[in-house]
Amino acid sequence: GCHLELDRVASDIVLSSIKNAVPSRWAAKVEELRAFVQSRRDLTLRAFLQDSALELEDLYAGNKSWSDLCEDAGVPTHPAGPREPHLRRACGRLLHIDDPLRIETYQRFLSSESPPDLASLPETERRLLRMLIAALVDKVVTKTTSLSDGCDLLWRHPQVRQELRELLAVLRDQLEHVTVPLDDNAAVPLAVHARYTRIEILAAFGIGEGAKVAPWQTGVYWAKDARADLLAFTLDKTGDHFSPTTRYRDYAISRDLVHWESQSVTRANSETGRRYQNHAAQGSRVMLFARKRPSDRAFYFLGPAQYVSHESELPMAIMWRLEYALPGDLFAAFAAAVA
Known about the structure:
The chain is 40% helix and 15% strand. It starts with 7 loop residues before the first helix and ends with a helix. It is globular, with a radius of gyration of 22 Å. Helix 6 packs parallel to helix 10 and helix 8 crosses helix 9. The chain is of the alpha+beta class.
């Protein structure tokens, strides 16, 4: 029941002391790791983060990686692969992973000294493998690179695989939501209320086959073979990333109702507009993905949604009912993002 209130000067002093106690510059992080190595034997990413009070985002800032830090601190690392710098930077693209299925499956894949046998993998695991590979090698392969070749490339980088295993162990300790698998569509390895990048979403729905996923730039994607409309939207549109014609009013009305606006060219009687309204009768599904701000790499998967009603057109203002209610913290965060 205690309350401590500081004046502005005292508050600034306390906050400055806390900030200075945590290494922020790269050289300071290197020295922190050197000191840690001298005092401890169990050198792991998890142990170092706990000792240094650093967050994963602090360590991976500026396109750096755990392997870079170890190397600069004189810690022995595995021999470098042919695209070592690129794949080390790519490790930082996985900080959003927050569901047990990806973490456990990726750990199992990466613990093997050879890539998985694609021919023997169930479709769900094949898609999970492609989600991992596409996220890591997207910048260093072409659209003709096969998934098998992408796997071979990653497995030629033992230090990167070691780092990924340690990173996933830390992410497993930081899970914030109880996610819900899409049990009715086992081939799509997504979990409701987990976060995914556009690359992962398309790979999960089986779009394409190679190591590189086709680009998805807009907020809507009709996955024809999967019979699913994928709607990815940003809640806070106050920045420079949006023009007046793309500042669609997307927000959560309640924990199970979402207001969403279509693209500005969509009429209610168009093929797309009719599909939105009649998706249940036509046997297609609507999947919603939302992020708070444009700088967020990943979107929260809100799960399947049912059409409720719409107003106007060009764009259509549609109300969707979520099959899985938003957790309280997500609803509060989404409401704050558009306040």
